[in-house]
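Revision sheet: structure tokens.
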Amino acid sequence: VIESEIITLSQIEDKAKPHLSSLDSVSDKKLYEKNYQQLLKKILENEIDEKLINREIDKHRDRLGVVEADIDRAVDEVARMNNIDKEQLQAALYGQGMTWSEYRQNLRGQIERARLIQFQVQGKIKIDDSDAKLYCIEQQKSQLDIYKVCASHILFQLTGKMSDDEKKSQLTKANQVSHQLTAGANFKDLAQKYTEDPVAVDGYLGCFSRGEMVESFEKAAFGLKEDEISKVVKSSFGYHIIKVHRREKQSAVGCEDLTYLNQMKNQLYQLQMEIHMKKWLKQLRKMAFVEVRL
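Predicted:
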């Protein structure tokens, strides 16, 4: 409930439907339900934020000053970016079931939203070259001990459609292969024979940094030495046996490099945007009556 406006559970569940495919790999029923509830809460939080922003737009609409000429420029920009003319854009919209007036109204809302955030958030962010350089140096210090891991795995998949007996069978197969590797079997040969990874058919995953893999897999991979093979590791995708081929230290680029410094400035700007956006939304929640019953 936001003031007198109600967001129903069915509305949240409808918005969650396009995201359900991300849970397909979760085989455990309790974990699936936990992840599903987290998904619903995340969507609800986003809906509350959007409702609060829309209330602010209504409150400051005159100050935002969006006129028809602004919408015309936005239409021209959309057509230019898609390399089509206005008539082709209209035809494409009609094909999607959207009228021209509805489309222009949507554009008006987007422009008003952008201006509101510019006034309330972006205008408070000031970043100069010295800020970017300091941020760059801090990032370089934090990356001194960061490695990429180059690894292979043998995957025994788990899916939500599997019965408990089928899941146990997958674990049994994974343990059997693990025992073969302990006895000295060739990892690549067993990977080519047993892995159920549809992409890495020979088991090789390439090199990856922290944050690129699911947590349990990453923790196991980064804990291995070169040429070391893990025990069976469970993730949302199934059971893995991981072999690390090498660990590569990531090279650092100097903070005097203008191109890299500009990248750091953009990163810092995005970081500050997120921080200030969260602060602003928190203030909006304090000023409004918001009750969550999920």
